[in-house]
Design goal:
Helices cover about 40% and strands about 20% of the residues. It contains 18 helices and 16 strands. The chain is globular and about 70 Å long.
Amino acid sequence: MTSSDTRIRVEPGSFRDPANRVFHAGDQVLRGLGPQAARDWQALAATDFFAALLAEGKVCGTEPVDAAVLPGWTAVLRHERIPFVSHPYEWSFGMLRDAALLHLEILRRALPAGFTTKDGSAYNLQWRGVTPVFIDVGSFAPLTDGEPWAGYRQFCQTLLYPLLVQAHLGVDFQPWLRARVDGVEPDQMRRLFRGARRLRPGVLTHVHLHGAMQERHARSSTTDVRAQLRAAGYSRDLALATVRGIEKLIRRLERRDEPSHWVDYQRTCSYTAQDRAEKEHFVTTAVTAAGRPGLVLDLGANDGRYARIAARHADTVVAVEQDPAVVDTLYRALRAEGEQRILPLVMDLADPSPGGGWGGVERAAFAARARADVVLALAVVHHLAIGRNVPLAQVLDQLVGHVRPGGRLVVEFVHPEDVMARRLLANKPDGLFPDYHRDEFERLLAARCRVERHRELPSGTRTLYQVVVGG
């Protein structure tokens, strides 16, 4: 979808490096560079390693434009627009690991060419489907021999530490990253990895030794630390060896899987083969009726069956699922298939990602990012309305809110007599959900949208609706 709005808007998450800043002008993504950043860019653009990274798609598409478009900046770059911006606490283990490995690969290729990256944050990466891409071109800077990697602490806190928590302790990292924009602190990690846990791969070096060095260097100025490292013989070769060591460690880390009911949901759910075939046909018709959707949201995507159907007819599909293990399985499957139009994300629809960071807007809330041409909400309503006690009207308000004006919502209502609804109701007090029935659902839906068509599945306990929102 193309926007005609050419007003210059500052990107709220771009302010931590005063040497450069990101702006939006319609669909354009622009980066203003100050005098030093402009000189660094000229040197970077002349290197073979950076040209290769661009050609391979590992760094977002970047080109210089007339500096007059951003008054007050020495130079201006235009970047490709990423289809959907996500945050690291919405990624699965495999996604975070692959993002970390790309970050390290870029640094490993930059060092021999005399460049480093000033930052090591997970937020410097985004996704084209299931392929990570480095977006912070302003992070590249000429390397000064004898100085450590400035981004090492950020890398540990937002990438390495969350991976260690998941791999060694079996604890999902997403709540840790969501709770704090700067990631997991070394002192938190030291408390988690005491005793024999200190000996697990990567912990002694990157948690305990790193923490001890930070405490020691906190008593010295930055200049003193750099001088001490140069005197100790810290070199480019040593920096490269360190990067390769971290790469080797991360490649060996694996997610500790716990049993999950949702991993096998498609086999254990109550759909018949005829139900599933009807549902697939309904979804296909709904998505194609929207022409060529730029963005489709599949809310409650599970194994990605319907996200894959939507991806045949859309530019980008964001497949949202609550269970991190399910999302990780889907991510690995999509990678193996070479599917580049689907982005799987971890998110609880009853507790979606809020705005975070400075001013609550440095990291945009999911609701602010997720406005789609088509929204699929299949087998979701009963989980929110019964499983999470969200009033039915509010469930529909949230679903409708994700649809752009004139877009379509495909929503499934699971009748109270359906086996899955009965399971949820069995754990609730009698009479708690008097409004959860088909007539009330249809009344609420008609008050918010124009119903184009509906189809009761052959089993007789589920109904699909295709509606137009606004427009």
